Structure formats: C-alpha cells, structure tokens
Amino acid sequence: MRGCTVALAVAVACLSKGVAHAQAPLAVKGTVVRETLDGSRAVVGEQVTLHRVNSRDAGPVDSMRTDARGAFAFRVAVPDTLSMYLVSARFGGIAYFSQPVQGDAPGATALVTVFDTTSADLRLQLQGRHVVVSSPNADGLRSVIDVLEIANDTILTRVPGPTNRPTFSLLLPDGAESVRATQGDISNEAVEVRDGRAELFAPLSPGLRQLVLTYNLPDGAFPVAMPLERPVTVLEVLLEEPGATATSPGLVSQGPVTVDGKTFSRFLGEAAAANAVLTLTGARRGIGSSMPPWMLPLVLTLVTLGAILVLARARSGRPQARRVPDARTAAPAGKMAVASITPWTPTPSTGVPVAPEPIGESRDGRALTTAPNDAALHMAHRLAAVDALLERVPRQPDAVRVELSAYRARLKDELVGVLARGTVDR
User: What is each CA distance from 411 to 1, 107, 213, 271, 314, in whole angstroms?
Assistant: First the structure.
C-alpha cells in the first residue's frame, strides 16, 4: 500500500510544467500481427497511425500502411521529449495500441497485436471484485464503489451482439440508485442500466479491463444480498461504517485500513464460487457522510492493491487459448471502438509481466510488500498528466478523447504490472 501511495503522491507533485528541447530524430519501427490459434500472423496493408500524447495535447502525427511483412516505420524529425508516442491500428472496427515510447528515445520497436472479433458468448473471467461502501449520510444513503476486473484470456475480442446483447452483464443490488461507470477503463456511455443489471456494450479484447461502477444504496436496502453469479478470483470489501459487516464463504476480516483520514474495515476472500452471495449489513449507529467525489481516486488507489494481487496470482507464461464458437462479427461499419488492453501473451512489448508472490505472505510465510521504483513513479507521472489533460480540456474532439482514454487505460494496466513486478521480500 505504501508503494502505491508514494507513487500517486509523487505523480501528482510532478505535474509541473516543462519545456521541450530539440532532440535527435525518433524512429519508431514495428509490426502489426494478428493472434490466431496457430500463432501470430502478419497483417498486410493495415493502416497504422503514430500518436503523440503529453500533458498539453494529443493527436495523430503520421500514418501509413504496413508492408508485405506487416511492418511499419515512422520517423519524427523533431520529437517532443516531454511526450510519449504510440502506434495504433484499426482491425475489425476496433482500435489497438502499442506500448508507448518516450520522445527522448533514440529508436524503438512497437508491436501492435490485433484480434478477430466475435459476438458469441466467451467465458470471461472475473479476476477481481472490490466493493467499497461509505457510511450513511443524513438521508440514510450509502455511496458504493464497485470495481470489477474482467479478464478475457481467449484470442478473440468480444463485441456486442445482435438484438442488443451486451459484452458483459452485472446483477446490481436491489435498491441501487444513480448507477454510473466512472474512472475505470470503460466510460459511462458504454454502460446501460436495465432490469436491475449494469450491461456493458464496450468491446472486450484479450487481457484485463477494469469496470468501475458507482451507485447509492438507501438505508432500507440493508442488509444487502449480492449474488456473485460467476466465480471471482479475489473478492474484497471495504466498509467505512463502524460496526458494518460483510459475509460470504471464504471472506475474512483483514482489520482496518485508512485512506486520507477515512477508516475502512477490510475483508478479503479468494476463489469465490459462482453461487456465492455477498451480504452487507449496516450498523445504523449514527450519521456519517457520503463519499465525496474527490475520494474516488484515493479509494481506487487502495483497491489497486487488489489488482496487484490479481496480477500476482496470474499464471506465468501464455494461457491455454480456449476454442470458441466460429461465429464472428465485426463492429458496425463506420464505428471505431477502443480496446486498449495489455494482452496476456507475454511478448517484449505487450505482454503482462511475470509477477512475484501476491501481497500479503509468500508460500513460505515471508511478508511481502510493494516498493516504489523509478519506473512506477515515471508511469504514475504519465498517468497523472493524462488525467490532468482530460480534466482541464473537457471539450476536446471525440477522436482525441478516445486516444487519451485508451492510452490512460493502458498506462493503468502497466502501472499495476510494474507495482506487482516491484514486489519485494521485506
């Protein structure tokens, strides 16, 4: 937790203005490949675009088509040393991105991995679910942050199907009000609430996506029963109200944790079954206050520990690709969806890092902790810069916001990976 907090604090402190200076030309070379059951295949004649992103602006720099080997090569005569550069390719109506390249790098290799699409059902995994509940306000309302880590470990991107079929659906607690998606990798526009469910209509490419839902629960809704409906690798609950409880098979109290002066009781469980039910009970001892909007990033920083736990427990190496139905469909013509995901395939430029033992205790009982490092601080700085740009310039062109939002999602995945990789024995 200390590593995450330090990284976030330094990132915010580092949001100072800098002046770009002239630099040697930047060369960004790479390939576009399509993952199949038989391995990677070069994508020939694919349109690729080089983007520049910094704390001031973002946008395309150059574009070209891949050659007969699926290769591309960009040259930036005068790169901005305060910017990051990344390459995108649109395949099957979905935009995929490479890892970012620093503007002061002499040269870089960028790999863009794309996938076929399907609207058929995929066995998506819920690697983590983190439920954060505030104390009740004067009206008895409790604010809830519900964070879900959705994993697609196939080699297909799941897209919405015909007849308005979502890519992912979550049963909401009875009485949930003012449901919104915020702060995560998926925008509120991609989530529809109907028939007591939050239904996702964003594409889900191979890798891990974070869906963050916020909603309110009235006092009369407690005790709240939340059927999980699907297996959950890591189940975490944070309750601000003193005396409130969370129960579910395998869920164990971890004691209190504090976020910016607010204390939460923390409960943690592993390998929750699909038929398990999470029950939340309020203490009804006095009146507190709803969770203010500015608390959300801090709470998500705390929840990042759960995300690290998810990555740390992931098996190293490439998972067994599932054989899925052949029914495949692209996104509707003319619409460009964004799937900015670090694939599970462990390649030098896009793979999920092999993580050490989870936060807590290693197999031999030794205590483990996260330690801040230069890579994590630098990555948090970039993430904070993108957040600042999205906040300061709310009316940017849609294309720019798409690029920024997708880039932010990738940065967050990378930051979690770096923090997990930086786990050390204490």
Answer: 19, 20, 20, 27, 19
Query: What is d(CA 378, CA 17) in angstroms, rounded to the nearest whole number?
Result: 15
**Cα separation, 339 vs 209, whole angstroms:** 9
Euclidean distance between CA atoms 164 and 199, whole angstroms: 10
Q: Which residues of 186-217 are buried (b: 16+ CB within 10 A; e: fewer)?
A: beeebbbbeeeebbbbbbbbbbbbbbbbbbbb
Strands (E), 334-422: 337-338, 360-361, 367-370
Burial of 113 (0-12, 13-18, 19+ CB in 10 A): buried
> pTM higher than 0.90, yes or no?
no
Where are the domain boundaries for CATH 2.60.40.1120 in the chain? 1-119+328-426
d(C-alpha 35, C-alpha 42), whole Å = 9
Contact present, 97 and 407 (Cβ < 8 Å): yes
Above pLDDT 90, what percent of the chain? 31
Pick the CATH number of 1-119+328-426 from 2.60.40.1120, 3.20.20.140, 3.90.1580.10, 3.20.20.60: 2.60.40.1120
Question: In a 3-state reduction of DSSP, which class is residue 165?
Answer: strand
Given pLDDT bands bounded at 50, 70 and 90, which one contains residue 391? low
Write out pLDDT tens, residues 192-206: 999 999 999 989 999
Asked whether 273 and 249 are in contact (CB, 8 A), the reply is: yes
Alpha-carbon distance of 291 to 295, in angstroms, equals 6
Beta strands in 16-98 (DSSP E): 26-36, 39-42, 47-53, 58-65, 71-76, 84-91, 94-97
Dist CA 417 CA 344 (whole Å):
12
pLDDT score at 117: 92
Instruction: Enter the tokens of residue 47.
Output: 């349109």
What's the chain's average pLDDT? 72
- Structural fold of domain 125-313: Immunoglobulin-like (2.60.40)
pLDDT in tens, 247-306: 999 999 988 887 667 788 889 999 999 999 999 998 765 555 555 555 555 555 555 544
